[in-house]
Amino acid sequence: MIWKSTFREIKESLGRFLAILAIVALGVGFFAGLKVTQPAMLKTAQRYFDKTALYDYRLISTVGFSEDEVETIKKQKDVKAAEGAVTFDIICESGGKERVLKMHSITEDVNRLVLVDGELPENAGECVVDSNLYGVSMIGKTIKLSDGNDEDDLEHFSNREYKITGIVQSPLYSQFERGSTSLGNGRVSGFVYLLPEGFADDYYTEVYVKFACDFPLYSEEYDAYIEQKQDAWEALTEDLAAERYQTVRSEAETKLADGKKQLAEKKEETKSQLDDAKKQLEDAKSQIEDGEKQLADAKKKLEYAPDELEKKEAELTEAEKAIQEKETQLDQAEVALGIGYAQGVGQIQKALNGISEGLFSENGDQGNGAAGSFSSGDALADAGSQIADAKAQIADGRAQIAEAQKQIESGKSAIAKAKKQLEESKTQIAEKEAELSDAKTQYEDGKKEYEDGLSTYNEEIEKAEKKISDGEKTLKELKDPDTYVLGRDTNVGYVCFESDSGIVDGVADVFPIFFFLVAALVCVTTMNRMVEEQRTQIGVLKALGYSEHTIMAKYMFYSGSAALTGCVAGFALGTFLFPKVIWYAYGMLYKMDSLVYVFDWKLAVISVTVSLLCSIGTTFVSVRRELTEVAAELMRPKTPKAGKRVFLEYIPFVWKRLKFLQKVSMRNIFRYKKRFFMMVAGISGCSALLVTGFGVRDSVTGIVTQQYTQIQTYDIGVAYSSSVTPEQKSELESKEQDGVEKSVFVAEKSMDLVGSEKTKSVSLIIADPDSDMTPFVNLHTEKGVPITFPKKGEAVISAKVADELGIKTGDTVTLQDSDMKTISVTVSGLCENFVYNYVYLSADTYEEQMKTEPEYKNAFVCVSEGTDAHLLGTSLMAMSDVAAVNISQDDMERFSGMMGSMDLIVVVIILCAAGLAFIVLYNLTNINITERVCEIATIEVLGFYENETAAYVFRENTILTFLGALAGLVLGVFLHRFVMSQIVVDMVAFDVHVKPVSFVYSVVLTLVFTWFVDRLMRKKIDAISMTESLKSVD
């Protein structure tokens, strides 16, 4: 019967049973869920890093490692695996964009890749890329090494293009951060993995070592194991580097000597070839000049030849004319000679006739006539002689004319031949001109080729000589190699994951306990009210002979079953749901496997034990107190407490202005003090949780903006490879047109700040004594009071690290570097700082105590308004000796991303606080209505409307809720401070404060929850039966 009664009670008061179940489930779920989140995160990380074989040591040497040295490392004690790797930063083109990517060689036994899609490379021309930067669509496309890279950088690669075969995740990049670089804008956008054959180098830039140890992740045992090996591995790395240094130096000297010899031989050989070519050019030039001279002479002769021919032709014409004239004269002479001859003959005949006549005339006359006749005969004889002479002359003339005619014909023939030769000469000259033109072209080509060859020769010789000179200079300046033995604590993703999981653990140390306290309070209130309500039933059971143990077992089973069911449900849902939700938030930052479910038996036992103690324990106390009375007394209702005047009645001007129901409400509020305090305590707890949730968000999310806008007000940090020179200072100052508004040079050095019990790593900042740091770093206390830059013998320290080491203003502190050199200074101020730990020092102090001048290798730059800091950063990277450029905006985005994951955690806390507030309000309101059923029925009987009745009941709820919310604001401030003190992240300080609007949100949300509960409970008020409720208990 008792068990039937128990189950009937559960069924009839299902709302109260479920309220206990829900409050326990929420408390246990929140407690177990948050407490198991960090172990689940760490176990997930452990599985991921074990699967990918994340390195334990990363060995770096400035002279690299050979294959033999890697084999030596593999043989060391406890080494499970060791692999050499090649890493280079390079500017790549893909998808029409240029990005700086970090190129890695694929390793098989250490730092294994996780293939997301596609397949791994199979040859030197293939690669896999960062899944965080590229999508599946990039598979099959190519990545090209940009022509903007230095040739020396490109020489490290065997190809200029690589085909993408897949996208991967790497344990080296478990977080979104990809690191910084000296290329481009100083940011690495992603990573690319190649086969070792994809690199052209015959050495490794680093060696990854994995030890045969199985310590939990981030455990003290692992840290101690790694630390105790540090010295031995540093010595080993130094020895290997020293051996390789000697080998590299020897090879370099040999290579340099061979290079000099080859250069000398090449110079001699090339010089001989150039000299021969020069001589050939000179000979060709001489031949061309001779040809040009001959051609000019020929042209000149050719120029006069037509005139000469014309002259000769004219002479021939004149000669022909003269011959013709001579012939005419000869013809005339012959004619004249003929006439003369005829006359002569006539005269001779006449003379003969005269002679004959004279012979036959008288003697005297005949004698005179004969004498005359003989005289005429002599004349005739003379005329005949002259005729003969004339004929001879004519014949002679004819012969001369014939000879002249022959000469004329010969001249004509010669002129014709000369004309032919002239035409041939013209043709020959044209051919010679063409040949000379070709010769000139060949000469000019040869000359250009010679000049190009000479220029190339000079350039190549200059390059070779510069290369040899640089090699000699490098060899001369070659220092002992630097070596580094880096553990996992230098990997950004590894370290940040520990910090982020620590935040969750810090929250889990406080919030769940508070949830449990509120849940316990609700259980106590609920069971107390239930036992008081069922006094009569307890009395009847006792009167019927049931033992106290049996009666007690009924109520303990009621509360215990509700608590146990709620505990099991809450633990199951909480340990599954909360880690999943938080892991989803961190999944935006970290690329690992799916979350590993962790079942913590110890936590489960604690949850069950606390849940049962809160429920069964409070039930035992309540029932035990009632069972001390006799059955008859229990079956009678408790005598109501005597009414008392409330304090408002002593304030007439307030009390008289209240309506009747308002006065009743005020009396009820202050009359039932236990209900008053329970209600206020429960609501204040929920409100405090809301304030704390909002406060955690306010304290975490705003620190990055404050750090980079109110403390470190510079926009760009520039790092040089060595101490800056006056020329480099001037070069930076000259960048005003590019957007540099102000700049200051500082020395930055990592040192240890030694405390009384522990030591913390800090970054020492020393400003140029001639510069003003105010525009770049705003030093002020946590209350906003300005701090002047430290003078000689003083230092300003970040408040967080000072608080951790117990340092106060006026204390004397010691700074120690890696060489064990120390600086002792007086703390002149503790400055507000949220990211990293800084100590600010004057140059005089450093120089006096360290006996050396600071190395100013860094510069802070403020950019002018409207200037793109990234474009300016690219310009600054091009300056001489600049090693890296860091954009403050990038740091702000990176840290904002890290802290942004807190938003979802805070949302979860707020939702759980809201759920808790809802359940608390529902429970307390349900109790309030249940124990006042008769009173509410009486109000209804008196004729009050339903809305008035509901307002009468809920007015008390609203007032108590408001009072509880106000109390929760105060409680929330202290709870928030305590929670923030438990959230410890190395080198990150939080701005512990709650924004005014967060207080408003907390009160408003609490009142909204009250309004929802009132709407829900309205049905219960309307369902109260006036007749049944007013029946006497007797």
TrEMBL record:
Entry keyword Ubl conjugation: no
Residues spanning the signal sequence: none
Annotated protein name in UniProt: ABC transporter permease
Domain ABC3 transporter permease C-terminal per the UniProt entry, residue ranges: 510-625, 908-1012
Keyword check for Membrane: yes
Residue ranges of the TM segments: 14-34, 510-527, 562-583, 603-623, 676-696, 904-924, 959-979, 999-1017
Coiled-coil residues: 249-336, 387-474
Gene3D superfamilies found in the cross-reference section: 1.10.287.1490
Ranges for domain MacB-like periplasmic core: 679-869
Originating species: Roseburia intestinalis
Pfam families tied to this protein: FtsX, MacB_PCD
GO CC terms of this entry: plasma membrane
Domain of life, per lineage: Bacteria
High-level lineage: Bacteria, Bacillati, Bacillota, Clostridia, Lachnospirales
Topology of the protein relative to the lipid bilayer: Multi-pass membrane protein
Main location: membrane
Localisation: Cell membrane
Keywords, ordered alphabetically: Cell membrane, Coiled coil, Membrane, Transmembrane, Transmembrane helix
